[in-house]
């Protein structure tokens, strides 16, 4: 897993050179073109909360990949066809999953 530097979350004071915290990035790698990065930065700069906007857009980029959208479509189809199960208690869900 790649290491990323997160300048937005750190326990050090602002301006401290050690402020950036290296954390493992659990998201799949989503390559962005230079034009996409420029577009994201421009969009983020026009936002009142530019850091939050840029972080949200980049952290959610995986959602729009063809692979993820295929999984979303599969899940939506299963729900539409009634192929889903609901549970009142977590232990009922675990028992169901163990039986699968």
Architecture blueprint of SSEs:
Elements: E1 3-6, E2 21-24, H1 34-45, H2 50-59, H3 66-80, H4 90-99
Antiparallel strand pairs: 1-2
Helix pairs in contact: 1-2
Question: How would you characterize the overall build of this protein?
Answer:
There is one protein chain. By secondary structure, the chain is mainly alpha-helical. The protein has a domain at 31-99. Helices cover 47% and strands 8% of the residues. The protein is built from 4 helices and 2 strands, in the order ββαααα. The chain has helices at residues 34-45, 50-59, 66-80, 90-99, and strands at 3-6, 21-24. The protein has a two-stranded antiparallel sheet with strand order 1-2. α1 (34-45) packs antiparallel against α2 (50-59). It is elongated and about 50 Å long. 0% of the residues are buried.
Structure at a glance:
The protein is mainly alpha-helical and 100 residues long. The protein contains 4 helices and 2 strands.
């Amino acid at each position: 897993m790649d290491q990323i530097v997160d300048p937005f979350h750190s326990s050090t004071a602002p301006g401290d050179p050690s402020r950036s915290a290296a954390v493992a990035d659990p998201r799949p790698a989503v390559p962005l073109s230079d034009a996409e990065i420029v577009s994201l930065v421009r969009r983020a700069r026009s936002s009142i909360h530019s850091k939050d906007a840029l972080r949200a857009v980049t952290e959610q980029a995986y959602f729009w990949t063809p692979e993820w959208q295929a999984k979303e479509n599969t899940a939506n189809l299963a729900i539409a066809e009634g192929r889903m199960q609901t549970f009142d208690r977590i232990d009922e869900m675990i028992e169901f999953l163990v039986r699968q």
